[in-house]
Amino acid sequence: MRKELPCIGVASFSYFSVWQGLYDFKDQYNVDGSPVKEVLQAGEYKQLRHSLGLVATAAAVSLVCTDVKCEEFVKQLWEAKHVPYEDGYLDKYYDGLLRLFAFMHLGGRYQIIFPQ
Prior knowledge:
mainly alpha
């Protein structure tokens, strides 16, 4: 039973993202899935975005899901460009690190190295 729980969450997120628009779902929602009334600020910028970090995270966790919709997150990550948004905002660190970890995870090279 425990192994099924992550897939349930991933499947729920993938269906939610598809319902919101797979290639344009935003990075902020209320816990119940409704749109936020007040957008949280990122640096000097205060706007909803289709976050590359969220796409990268969705792609990495899609490995535990057997639904074909989950593969779309991997495709979206692979095709994404890490460039500034239309308003000039670029999250090099947070989105960049999540993207890097997702690529390592999806490439099978994400592993724990224990001290010897």
